[in-house]
Amino acid sequence: MITRLLLTYSLMVSAVGALSAQTSPDDIRVDDYRPRSIYKVPVSKTDKARYPAIDIHSHPYAKSDEALKEWVKVMDNAGIAKTIVMTMSHGAKFDSLYAKYAAYGDRFEVWCGFDYTGYQEPGWSEKAVRELERCFKAGARGVGELGDKGMGEMFSGPAKAQGMHVDDPRMQPLFAKCGELGIPVAIHVAEPYWMYQPMDSTNDGLMNAYKWRIDLTKKGIYNHGQLIATLDHVVRDNPKTTFVACHLANCEYDLSILGNMLDRYPNLYAEFGARYAETAPIPKYMNAFCEKYQDRLMYGTDMGYSPHMYATTFRILESNDEHFYEIDLFEYHWPLYGFGLKDSVLKKIYRENALEILHKDATGRKR
Description:
Layout: H1 2-21, E1 53-58, H2 65-78, E2 80-86, H3 91-102, E3 108-111, H4 124-138, E4 143-148, E5 152-153, E6 161-162, H5 172-181, E7 185-189, H6 206-212, H7 224-237, E8 243-245, H8 256-264, E9 268-271, H9 276-279, H10 283-292, E10 297-298, H11 307-318, H12 327-330, H13 343-358
Parallel strand pairs: 1-2, 2-3, 4-7, 7-8, 8-9, 9-10
Antiparallel strand pairs: 5-6
Helix pairs in contact: 4-5
């Protein structure tokens, strides 16, 4: 009798649950929306990069020696031969981070930041150049990631440089010195275009865009186009310095902007870090773009070091998979598609292009 009552109760609960699932779309919060693809299409296994990869865009995510050891194991399993750690630091902090990651030899390469302390005072550029040279002697093999989301160069710490953008004349001596030392400079300008659009029902990247939205009402803030122009200017004015446009220069909505800069400036490269979801909805276009600029694009992540994260980036670059979701990883609600890049292009994006800029000295010769 008790068993029968429990079964009846269970069926009633299931029925109520089924009815509650039939709610009106008006009752569903957008940030609770978790669509699941019903298409029975091929699913690729991409736990390991098809070719040994260099991750050109990462940060000092490991907060302990054990975490760093685990990261190296994950890299081994994922086929990541080397990771570039952009510390955005200088002084004692850079020295400490360099010592930590240099213990693993060629598995990591450590980049420094600029010291903006006193950037509004006379003689700042000369002091900053001296610290850059010191960091280089201490082991830095690149600078990055510099970052400007509209208010000036704000990524390197602890001092910020509000109001000073990368094309500011005060920064010119530092970029010239990077050219002399033969070290690349990674620059992040702007954010994806959805972050600049109205935060309403017309914004197809709304939930992610709302989190990272740009407040263009702030006094002195640059808009998207103005920030891209600063990148254009600094690359143009420093032809002997190699620059890396982080996140595809945040031009995912119109990659012809980045393409035009790549056409004009042989000293400019670009990387995919944290922009896989923004480009995966347009796989045919991305395949053609990667084919055209295969000598200038590089693999980067900028999303930690989980095995699932690496596997998802490989899936987007390598496979022809269709209509799959990664909402929790990327925070967008749209389906993703693989670019299906051919092997010759993958080899360049994963490794060969990075080697071109990582292994040169100040004269342009391979290290």
